[in-house]
Specification:
The protein is α/β, with parallel strands linked by helices. The protein is 42% helix and 13% strand. A hairpin with a 2-residue loop joins β3 and β4. It starts with a strand and ends with a helix.
């Protein structure tokens, strides 16, 4: 009887794995078919050959090992497949032990950094984090923004490179963070000491070009990786790549994220993987799953959570990730908590009636939605955006942006809904009017004060830019491009203007465009939130623009959140606080819990940050008066 042999190979360009059963054994063939169908929606088979992506096959290696033992199956690998399997085995061994072979002390760390011209003295908590990350084969740094995650990971990389474990640094990050990475590298190693290449969306550079020059660091933005990454595969195969996801919460939606499917292909080829995020679970603990799956593919680090309540699952999540990440908290940085005030503002008569009408419209949309689903999230998300607009500025619901100085008397015999298109003629948006008064007061108190105003809606930003023109405002939102600091149209110019021009008193921005990779804490200590949404990461990241490492002693950071009474704004308080507390519980960070404290004690594409609990409280707000 011929022995059963399973030949496994992996194509070095496409990363497609091939399984060939040399002797047709129906029992073995059927078991392999079951394994492949359970781990992949993309597998195919013909005759005795199975084909599927390697990153999916690796999830079935344990099951294949059981088949091998059960049927005395011989397995033969080609050289590349053998290398990948050995990496997987080493990863699994290291995850069980939560350590790797790199275990050095502080003296050796200092020697290696000095030898490699690392010209920055690490703070105590940064040294602690570097030494811990080095003990892990792959790691996560969840330190708060401003704690020096970039410095810490550059120190970690320097040691790994000196030891021959890695040779190249490949960073996937938001475009906003590119300048920060460039500045950090230049300040630490000296300008031009390391060769950095930026590959970003809309640029003509081809991925294959990175093979043609001796690069030390490659920066790529997430959007650039939405297309096929096959041109990057040779670079990862031929080099010992240290792969980093900066702001790793960007992949929290996992396979629903366009870039994630390409990133995960590269993950297996990297010698070292790290993730960086100050807000790793902006919605719930499930946000951690794809991030840890990037670090440890197929290992299911985060426990099963079917129908488990948060209070039951959070301790298990805490235990599962304990030792696999480092975090420097704001308390460790010696920063005093910001002062957070909620300002309640009653609606005008027309706005209140319009809000009621849009709430009724939302009630019709949500009626019949028995349970949360992606489809229902999208439908209710559109209604939530309308409610946020109605609560903030009803002009957003019209086609007009005129903002007159005077208002007219409400005409007789006209329904309120008929007044929507001409709302600005008869009533001023109460939050916008409050901001005009508040900005004037803050600057009158101290002419050197600068103010950061947040809004999710671009039309709000543009309206405020006109209304606050005497303060020479700058604006940042999605359509403002990145580029040279000398070009007035770019974000970089707007940021420099806010920093350096004493006549520029106000920055108006939305968290989507300005919530990451930007530091304003040296010139600005006031933030006003015109509106918020259900995404806790956006909120926390935006606060950290002016509350981070480098604040001088005695400086108080003041955050003011505008709440329109009897609207979805009040629902947001509890939900964002709950999400922040949950994150604090998992990351054992008391700062996050204190940040969620509500001094007002008010009860009440995913872009608005809705999860299943949000869905239920929104439904309650909409349906019940």
């Amino acid at each position: 009887m011929m022995s059963n042999i399973l030949e496994i190979s992996v194509d070095r360009r496409s990363l497609v794995a091939t399984l060939y059963l040399t002797n047709k054994d129906e029992r073995v063939f059927n078991e392999l078919k079951i394994i492949c169908s359970s781990i992949s929606d993309n597998y195919s088979y013909s005759d005795l050959v199975f084909k599927l992506p390697w990153f999916e096959l690796k999830r079935g290696l344990t099951s294949i090992a059981h088949v091998r033992k059960k049927y005395k199956l011989d397995i033969k690998y080609d050289a590349f497949a053998k290398r990948l399997v050995e990496e997987t085995v080493n990863d699994r061994k290291s995850i069980k032990e939560k350590k790797s072979a790199v275990d050095i002390n502080e003296d050796i760390l200092n020697q290696i950094l000095k030898k490699n011209n690392f010209n920055r003295k690490l703070k105590a908590e940064q040294k602690r984090d570097v030494l811990h990350l080095l003990r892990l084969k792959h790691g996560a740094n969840f330190s708060v923004p401003g704690a020096g995650k970039t410095t810490t990971i550059l120190a970690t990389h320097t040691v790994l490179k000196q030891l021959g474990i890695v040779s190249k640094l490949f960073v996937i990050a938001p475009i906003n963070a590119f300048i920060s990475w460039q500045d950090e590298v230049d300040e630490i190693f000296g300008k031009g000491a390391l060769i950095i290449k930026r590959l970003q969306r809309n640029h003509t550079e081809n991925f294959s070009l990175i093979e043609q020059s001796d690069l030390d660091i490659i920066l790529v933005n997430y959007e650039k990786l939405r297309k096929d990454v096959s041109q990057l595969i040779p670079f990862f195969i031929n080099n010992k790549v240290h792969l980093i996801l900066d702001e790793s919460h960007r992949i929290k939606s996992g396979t629903n994220n366009i870039s994630y499917g390409q990133i995960i292909k590269l993950a297996d080829l990297a010698k070292r993987r790290d993730i960086l995020s100050g807000t790793p679970m902006p919605q719930s603990y499930t946000d951690l799953e794809p991030q840890f799956d990037f670090l440890w593919p197929g290992e299911n680090i985060i426990p099963e959570h079917t129908r488990s309540k948060d209070e039951d699952i959070l301790p298990k999540v805490n235990q599962a990730i304990n030792g696999l990440f480092v975090r420097t908290t704001k308390n460790e940085l010696g920063l005093e908590d910001p002062i957070i005030d909620y300002t309640l503002i009653p609606m005008g008569k027309i706005q209140a009636e319009l809000y009621r009408l849009f709430k009724s419209e939302a009630a019709r949309v949500i009626s019949g939605m028995d349970k949360p689903s992606i489809y229902n999230f999208r439908r209710i998300g559109r209604s939530v955006v309308k409610l946020l607009q109605a609560a903030t500025n009803p002009i957003l619901l019209t086609a007009k942006d005129e903002y007159g100085e005077e208002t007219l008397s409400v005409p007789q015999n006209r329904e309120f809904w008929e007044l929507l298109e001409d709302f600005q003629k008869y009533e001023k948006p109460v939050k916008i009017e409050y901001i005009k008064i508040r900005v004037k007061k803050i600057i009158e108190e101290n002419p050197t004060n600068k103010i950061l105003i947040w809004s999710y809606f671009v039309r709000n930003i543009l309206i405020l830019k006109k209304l606050l023109k005497e303060y020479n405002p700058v604006v940042i939102y999605g359509e403002v491009p990145s580029g040279s600091e000398e070009d007035e149209k770019t974000r970089e110019y707007q940021i420099r203007e806010f920093h350096e021009n004493p006549e520029c008193k106000v920055m108006i921005a939305n968290p989507q465009a300005c919530g990451e990779g930007i530091s304003l804490h040296k010139v600005c200590h006031y933030a006003i939130y015109l509106d918020r949404n259900f995404n806790a990461a956006f909120f926390l990241q935006s606060i950290d623009r002016i509350h981070r490492l480098g604040l001088e002693k005695g400086i108080v950071t003041k955050i003011e959140i505008l709440i329109t009474e009897n609207t979805i704004d009040e629902v947001l308080i509890d939900r964002l606080n709950d999400k922040i507390k949950a994150m604090g519980n998992v990351l054992e960070d008391p700062y996050l819990s204190s940040l969620a404290y509500d001094p007002a004690d008010i009860s009440i594409e995913d872009e608005v940050g809705i999860d299943s609990v949000d869905f239920e409280v929104i439904k309650k707000h909409i349906i019940h008066e």
